[in-house]
């Protein structure tokens, strides 16, 4: 039988829990997220997988220039999710792990008393503090599995993970850049179909040496000037980033200074929300051009969505499982005309070898 003191403690505990639950429900009821965006919407478009077009629609609803934009933390999480989708590529478990860390970063930290060196932090939030958290942020953190979870992470571990991907992104972009330059160089003499493997071989350069189109010393010298790599590395980079390659190339083609592009800013997290939304129409216009002018000539293009409708309709979710459907959906979301641009020059032997391989006379 419970003592009177124990009963009073239990009553106090239950009253405290009831107050917290009541306060939380009250806050959640004030949020239009409950009626407009369901839990399933966040799970389908943000947590389990990323649907960039749907996330951009949500971001466009707010005013990034407002002094106190509504749902600022939620929008930052969404922007980071887009950034991860672009820079991590087609490796879902890596993207989810990094996104969970980012979602946790916006939750109140509870420092570990035993961790005097501050190497790690306990993150997540207990139910008694849930009422103090903005409802939109609480929902994302909850869906990402961070409520009542006392995991420990190293601080700022997202940035080094993304920096590891710089070379692979560079190699994936190089595939499209080489193809773009080759197409423009040949003009009307360019064939309608170019084998993807041929582009990989051209970047590698060993075939050009074998055919006496370039010397070994010239190849080694060109590696310092151009993003050249082995066949295996090119294939791995392309496999990881084929969904995002068109947008990554578009980002790399837009300079913000003599030494920096939008892609560089994306890696350094300097492409903040307002600037991201400002630049997306131009990025998508270039992506539209690359998709139609460059990607459509790849030999595996039949498995891609390589043509954007002349009068695009805003898609309701994923229309197919083709690799770059997300890119097509984003282009449709902005309804932009293709914006052509001049690619950076490739190593001369790359053009020579592709012409030789495709039996094209350049005279």
What does this structure look like?
This protein is mainly alpha-helical and 363 residues long. It has 2 domains: 35-163, no CATH class; 166-357, no CATH class. It has 18 helices and 2 strands. The chain has helices at 4-30, 33-36, 39-47, 52-60, 72-88, 92-105, 135-143, 158-163, 166-186, 196-204, 206-210, 216-223, 231-241, 245-252, 262-267, 273-293, 325-334, 348-357; strands spanning 120-122, 152-154. A two-stranded antiparallel sheet has the order 1-2. Helix 14 (245-252) packs across helix 16 (273-293). The longest helix is centred in the N-terminal third of the chain and has 27 residues, at 4-30. It is elongated and about 95 Å long. The protein starts with a helix and ends in a 6-residue tail after the last helix. The model is unreliable at 111-123 and 314-321 (pLDDT under 50).
Largest sheet: 2 strands, antiparallel
The count of strands amounts to 2
Low-confidence stretches: 111-123, 314-321
Name the strands of the widest sheet in spatial order: 1-2
| Gyration radius, in Å | 25 Å
How many distinct domains?
Answer: 2
Q: Helix/strand/pairing class, anyone?
A: mainly alpha
User: Approximately how much beta-strand content do the residues carry?
Assistant: under 5%
Tally of helical segments: 18
User: Level of helix content?
Assistant: 55-70%
- How far the N terminus sits from the C terminus, by CA atoms, comes to 101 Å
Quick one: overall form? Answer: elongated
Order of SSEs, N→C?
HHHHHHEHEHHHHHHHHHHH
Mean pLDDT, rounded to whole units?
78
């Amino acid at each position: 039988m419970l003592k009177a003191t124990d009963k009073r403690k239990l009553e106090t505990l239950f009253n405290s829990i009831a107050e917290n639950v009541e306060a939380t429900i009250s806050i959640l009821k004030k949020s239009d997220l409950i009626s407009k965006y369901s839990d399933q919407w966040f799970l389908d478009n943000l947590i389990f997988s990323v649907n960039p077009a749907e996330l951009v629609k949500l971001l466009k609803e707010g005013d990034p220039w407002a002094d106190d934009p509504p749902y600022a933390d939620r929008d930052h999480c969404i922007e980071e999710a887009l950034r991860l989708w672009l820079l991590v590529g087609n490796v879902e478990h890596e993207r989810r792990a990094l996104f969970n860390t980012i979602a946790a970063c916006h939750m109140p930290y509870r420092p570990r008393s035993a961790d005097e060196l501050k190497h790690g932090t306990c993150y997540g939030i207990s139910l008694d503090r849930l009422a103090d958290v903005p409802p939109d942020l609480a929902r994302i953190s909850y869906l990402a599995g961070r409520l009542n979870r006392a995991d420990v992470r190293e601080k700022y571990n997202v940035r080094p993970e993304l920096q590891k991907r710089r070379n692979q992104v560079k190699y994936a972009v190089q595939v499209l850049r080489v193809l773009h330059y080759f197409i423009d160089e040949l003009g009307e003499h360019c064939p309608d179909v170019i084998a993807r493997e041929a582009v990989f071989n051209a970047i590698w350069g060993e075939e050009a040496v074998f055919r006496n189109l370039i010397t070994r010393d010239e190849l080694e010298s060109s590696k310092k000037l151009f993003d050249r790599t082995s066949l295996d590395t090119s294939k791995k980079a392309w496999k990881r980033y084929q969904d995002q390659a068109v947008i990554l190339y578009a980002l790399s083609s837009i300079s913000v200074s003599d030494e920096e592009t939008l892609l560089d800013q994306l890696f350094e997290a300097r492409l903040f929300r307002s600037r991201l939304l400002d630049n997306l129409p131009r990025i998508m216009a270039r992506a539209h051009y690359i998709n139609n002018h460059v990607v459509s000539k790849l030999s595996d293009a039949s498995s891609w969505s390589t043509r954007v409708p002349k009068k695009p309709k805003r898609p309701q979710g994923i229309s197919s499982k083709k690799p770059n459907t997300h890119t097509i959906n984003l282009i449709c979301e902005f309804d932009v005309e293709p914006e052509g641009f001049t690619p950076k020059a490739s190593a001369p032997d790359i053009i020579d070898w592709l012409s030789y391989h495709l039996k094209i006379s350049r005279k």
